[in-house]
Amino acid sequence: MVILVAVFLGSVVAYLLYNGILNFFLNPYCTIVGGDHCSLYVTGPLDGFALRLKISIFGGMALALPVILWELWRFITPGLKNNEKRYAIPFVVASILLFAFGCYVAYLTFPHALRFLSGAAGPHLTQIYSPSSYLNLIILLMVAFGVAFEFPVLLVSLEIAGVVTPKRLSDFRRWAIVIIFAADAVFIPSSDPFSLFAMALPMVLFYEIAILVGRLMVRSKNKARAAIPAD
Fold it and tell me: Does the predicted TM-score (pTM) go above 0.85?
């Protein structure tokens, strides 16, 4: 009930801020076509209102995210051990920051992706975008980047659980790079080379960071064991 109320209140705020939110998403499009020609076109009398409701609901979920995470944390915490709670908070914070960073990278990359997609159609086609198709693409791209940038959190979690080791990740590095680029090429919604490299290169860097973090954790565990006096 608390989450539903938070989403409802957030949706009301997003409804009132609709113009600002729409301008935010339109900015990449206006960057490539010019400020005087960056309008989206609707084909039905209800399309504009439906778009406003859609943006309000998604905006409400985004604004209510702190409340949603807090309620989930209160639900999960009683079942966690002390050492699990110690890892949980840094992982939650890192996950939020990495997801936000991924959305930001996607937003910065989107004008280049849109310019590529527009140019691929050729000079004889005039581009007229509907709000639904345009917003679906940019939001889906931001979510895809946000989820992909959770990659180091997943790897470090597997290292803590003992499923993989830093050495195994290091030995698998070449195959991992190939798999990262291949998977990104398949799952990127826009299917353009700019988004591909903007997603794949940070993931390769995250892979190396996960190896480094794993080695530091192994070194810390070894020091802790060495400090324990033998019986």
Answer: no
